[in-house]
Amino acid sequence: MHDVTVHLGRHLRLDDNPLLATAAASQERLLPVFALDPAVRRGVQQEAFLLASLADLQQSLRARGSDLLLLHEAPQPEVRDRYESPMRMIADSDLPFVSSRMPRTYTPFRQQIEAAGMRSTAPVPCPERLPPLPEDVSCPTIVAPAVPLIAAGGEQAGLAHWRHYRDRRLPDSYKQTRNALLGWDASSKLSLWLAWGCLSPRRLASDLFEYEQAHGANEGTYWLWFELLWRDFFALRAEHRDVEGGAIDPDDPRWRAFATARLGHPLIDAGLRELNATGFLGNRLRQIVASYAIRERGWPWAIGAAYFAWQLIDHDPASNVGNWRYIAGQGADPRGGRHFDPEKQREMYDPDDAYTRRWGGA
Ligand SMILES: Cc1cc2nc3c(=O)[nH]c(=O)nc-3n(C[C@H](O)[C@H](O)[C@H](O)COP(=O)(O)OP(=O)(O)OC[C@H]3O[C@@H](n4cnc5c(N)ncnc54)[C@H](O)[C@@H]3O)c2cc1C
Q1: Partner of 273 for a Cys bridge, out of 156, 257, 321, 359, CB 3.0 to 4.6 A?
Q2: Is the CB of residue 234 below 6 angstroms from any atom belonging to ligand 1?
């Protein structure tokens, strides 16, 4: 038994946190830390959500006899993965293939997992008590900035959101509503907490199976799992391939076009206004915006990916780069890229311009 520092990275929760559970079982003293790299630039909402999540975790750790120390430095290379990759729903040991030889596209990836009867790795419970800090270490209280956010950061808020989502039986209608452009309940919004590891995808999946036991499985519950598996797919790809996005350059006119919501189409610009105002954008509009920037404007995907990385509260390097590359036809798309015709999308998803007007256009 000895003292140990544990870097939490994007694992900002007590529940189903194997890093904490293992360290708690084997260490006499434990120092949970998070390296907040001052060189990483984030949009205002992303920064506020992250700090709120850290403050929430600090309170939870204190209640169990521990604490959280913020380091203002870049994470060391040996722990960088924890800062870049939140946990997957299915652990390597539960995959029906060697992870480095995963199928290149999503459908065979999913089919092999389903054929093996695998849906999720089981979550681990949170330890009741955690080892005390090493002697002579004290942790200043983390204070989150008072920035208005679409949802509160942290594990407590994430769990409350998920409970509320289930209690209203929203998983049942998820498949029908998920692409709607307006309405907080149209999709689950779980990405906000998943991206920072405030929620565990294994806990969500396990709760979803309990929900199916209680209320019956249906298209909606299956589709929620299906989308969570997309997240695993991109995470796993990122572990074996490059996830380098573009660099932030506020002086680049293309960056300014994103920042001032002037890409040149009313629906796309409305989407960018929502993104800039809230730090969030639904999946359908992310696809339409990405397709427009790449195909209509002819910009490299990495420019838009860098902008999203800076602005999205739920920025997750693997999902962001994976989706941008998918639309650019450079990644896991068996059809060589996706083109979303903006006018057709507008007719299908915003026929009366309600969304475009809501975000100040048309
Ligand atoms: C260009 C582009 C960039 C994106 N960047 C990110 C990102 O940085 N971080 C991020 O979490 N997601 C990203 N996504 C995926 C997806 O848009 C978001 O996960 C989703 O919109 C989050 O809202 P939700 O939680 O309400 O999703 P829901 O529709 O409720 O889906 C449930 C969960 O499934 C997962 N999921 C759903 N769709 C995808 C997908 N296409 N790829 C990976 N996981 C998915 C997410 O974890 C999500 O929380 C991106 C998609 C595109 C097209």
Answers
A1: 359
A2: yes
* Distance from Cα 282 to the centre of ligand 1, integer Å: 8
In this structure, the residue with its CA closest to atom 36 of ligand 1 is 227
Residue 126 has φ and ψ, to the nearest 5°, of -85, 135
Indicate the length of the chain as a whole number.
362
- Based on its alpha-carbon atoms, the radius of gyration of the chain, rounded to whole angstroms, reads 21
Q: What pLDDT band is residue 267 in, cutting at 50, 70 and 90?
A: very high
Whose CA is closest to 243, among 234, 232, 251, 230? 234
pLDDT of residue 182: 97
Q: Does any ligand 1 atom lie closer than 6 A to the CB of residue 191? A: yes
Statement to judge: residues 55 and 166 lie in one domain: no
Average pLDDT for the chain: 94
Give distance in angstroms: CA of 113 to centre of ligand 1: 20
CATH number at residue 114: 1.25.40.80
Give domain status of residue 247, yes or no: no
Alpha carbon of 191 to ligand 1 centroid (Å): 6
Instruction: Look at residue 151 and tell me if it is in a domain.
Output: no
pLDDT single digits (tens) 175-228? 999 999 999 999 999 999 999 999 999 999 999 999 999 999 999 999 999 999
135-184 residue pLDDT tens:
999 999 999 999 999 999 999 999 999 999 999 999 999 999 999 999 99
Range of the domain at 103: 92-125+156-240
Kindly state if the Cβ of 53 falls inside 6 Å of ligand 1.
Answer: no
Residue 246, in any domain of the structure: no
Span from the CA of 91 to the centroid of ligand 1 (angstroms): 20
Tell whether ligand 1 has an atom less than 6 A from the beta carbon of residue 14. no
On whether both 100 and 163 belong to a single domain, the answer is yes
Query: Is ligand 1 within 6 A of the CB of residue 232?
Result: no
Domain shared by 97 and 21, yes or no: no
Q: Report, as an integer, the average pLDDT of 238-252.
A: 79
Q: Which of 36, 37, 43 is closest to 308 using CA atoms?
A: 43
**Domain identity same for 18 and 104:** no
User: Which atom of ligand 1 approaches the CA of 224 most closely?
Assistant: 32
Task: Give the pLDDT of residue 248.
Answer: 81
pTM for this predicted structure: 0.97
Which residues, other chains included, contact 13 with Cβ-Cβ below 8 Å and sequence gap of 6+? 57, 155, 158, 197, 198, 199, 200
Domain presence at residue 133: no
Mean pLDDT of 53-57: 98
Domain end among 84, 108, 141: 84
Say what the alpha-carbon torsion angle 293, 268, 149, 171 is, to the nearest 10 degrees: -100
